[in-house]
Amino acid sequence: MSSEQYEKLHELYNELYANLQKIQQRLQSSYGEEKKKLLREFGEKQKEANEMLSEMENELKSAPPSFRHQTTSKLRAYKRDLVKLQMEANYNALELGPKERETYNVKNEHSTHLASQRSLLLQGTESLNRATDSIARSHRIAAETDAIGTDIIEELGEQREKLDRTKGRLVGTSENLSKSRKILRSMSRKIVTNKLLLSIIIILELAILGGLIYYKFFSKR
């Protein structure tokens, strides 16, 4: 709702209502063509005032609930005031006496009551329609959320399967690495053993060679 637009309409309505009151006062002391002219002017301005009230009601449809309820009561009061002015204008147009005015007043009050009840019924229907639309939107959102949740669960299930497969591959890789380490340690031990054996063989060969040299060159002396 545009608060600026509503305030503008409200100000224009107050001006119209003030003009209607002035016309009503002039009707009480006018006759003939002047009265007819004033009645036509009153009817035009009253129609304009009713249209303005309808525009104000449309502006209120998108207003916050607390403000809408409070202002709707004011609009109903404005409508009642307009009806009263119309009744007074009708009295002056028909030039009714006190008794005729009372009868006419009862009929108009009944009509006003019916119009008020009809207006309340329409407002209740609009509120019910808005509530129904809101519930329908909530159901749609819930259904969409449920569908999204289902998709997420399925995707998480797929991710879990992938993680399980990856974990299995990692376990297999870890086992292979353990076997490789064992093989490397075994090879390392064999290499060390071979080096020791080779060193012993070299030492023995050197000892034998030294013994032969000693025997050949020094033992004959």
Describe the structure.
The chain has 221 residues and is mainly alpha-helical. The chain has a domain at 3-95: Up-down Bundle (Methane Monooxygenase Hydroxylase, Chain G, domain 1). The protein contains four helices and no strands. It starts with a helix and ends with a helix. The model has no long low-confidence stretch (mean pLDDT 80).
Could you give the topology of this structure?
Layout: H1 3-27, H2 32-60, H3 65-94, H4 98-217
Helix pairs in contact: 1-2, 1-3, 2-3, 3-4
Q: Round the mean pLDDT to the nearest integer and report it.
A: 80
Given as residue ranges, the uncertain stretches (5+ residues, pLDDT < 50) are none
Helix content: over 70%
Could you describe the largest sheet, including whether it forms a barrel? Answer: none
Protein name: t-SNARE coiled-coil homology domain-containing protein
Subcellular location: Endomembrane system
InterPro entries: GOSR2/Membrin/Bos1, SNARE, T_SNARE_dom, v-SNARE_N_sf, Vesicle_trsprt_v-SNARE_N
Main location: membrane
Write out key terms for the chains shown.
4 helices, rod-shaped, Methane Monooxygenase Hydroxylase, Chain G, domain 1, 221 residues, single chain, mainly alpha
In short, what is this structure?
With 221 residues, this protein is mainly α. Helix content is 92%, strand content 0%.
